[in-house]
Amino acid sequence: MSTYRFFQIDAFAERAMAGGPAAVMPMEAFLADDVMLAIAAENNLAETAYIVAKGPGVWDLRWFTPALEVPLCGHATLASAHALYSHLGYDGPEIGFDTKSGRLSVKRLADGRLEMDFPAQPPRDVPMPEGLADALGATPQRVVAGPYLMAIFATPDEVRALKPDLVRVNEISGGATGGRGNLICAAPGASEGFDVVSRFFAPGSGIPEDPATGSAHCIIAPYFSALLGKPELACFQAYPGRGAHITTRLEGDRVKLIGRARTVIAGQFFA
Predict the structure, then answer these.
(1) pTM for the whole thing?
(2) Across-strand partners of 247?
(3) 35 pLDDT exceeds 90?
């Protein structure tokens, strides 16, 4: 039996038990894919992040849901940086993560928040997919697509009230994007004191609803920055009972994703 360090960290969280929980497990080398998937399934969180030291200030990083490996994950990247700064003795100005989506960097700001640098993914207009309104129980004003489909609503109340048929969402979103059947639902959030309020349904990744999704904000940021005429946005992901605070700042073809993280569990994993 092997023993690994384990941290459960709430990312994009202004308090403990908010934001999105992720497991972070530092290792000397990556385990076999089936073992890392089994550990992620055991953790039963939206993502488990595995980090392996590569060189000064640089780590290899991979992310697994309970069902599969994903190519990009924001909240588990933020959680990994928090683990390095808060528990693993790193104190450099910036962290580099080498991933299947390229080099991602994270730095600690003067106010204690962490700032990630991710690729922006501007969406394109697409026709309203047949059956989407029925699957959501509400009709969006507009639908756009990047790696994920995004349905735009008029108000945050509409987004909060959604009770989608996730089987149909998976089929419709996957068919519209040619990728996994995941769906962002978002609205301008001025009525709640935010620029954007969103939810993220990810049945195509084995997650009914994700509490905090950095990769979704790589699509949200360019769309709503153009719509609202603001390069920096205060975003709120309205997962019931939790809620994630994500600040985005669009800089050319990159987007900064900024937030706080809180450790809620630290211990050992026996496998």
Answers:
(1) 0.93
(2) 234, 258
(3) yes
